UniProtKB/TrEMBL annotation:
Its main location: membrane. It holds the Pfam family MbhD. It is found in: Cell membrane. It comes from Methanobrevibacter millerae. Keywords: Cell membrane, Membrane, Transmembrane, Transmembrane helix. This is Energy-converting hydrogenase B subunit D EhbD. The chain crosses the membrane at residues 50-69. It comes from the Archaea. One of its GO terms (cellular component) is plasma membrane. Residues 9-72 form the MrpA C-terminal/MbhD domain. It is a multi-pass membrane protein.
Length: 77
């Protein structure tokens, strides 16, 4: 049952990240999606994949997206 909830969280947060107008909110939603997927991998007994997903999908990618958004905003000198 918890697997289905995590899958729904992953799908819904990914869709919300795609339709989000604010790019910083999209970065946060990307982190939610990656975190839920990492927990799902851990439940499915793939701890090596879960650790990689937690590091890359839930931490590094959202931070890089947020940094890219901050660096490319117009008018901020």
């Amino acid at each position: 049952m918890i697997e289905f909830i995590l899958m729904i969280i992953t799908i819904v947060s990914a869709i919300l990240a795609l339709i989000q107008k604010d790019l910083l909110k999209a970065a946060i939603l990307t982190g939610f999606s990656g975190g839920a997927l990492a927990v799902l991998f851990q439940i499915l007994l793939a701890p090596d994949v879960a650790l990689t997903q937690a590091i890359v999908g839930a931490a590094i990618v959202p931070v890089f997206i947020a940094l890219a958004v901050k660096k490319t905003q117009w008018g901020d000198a």
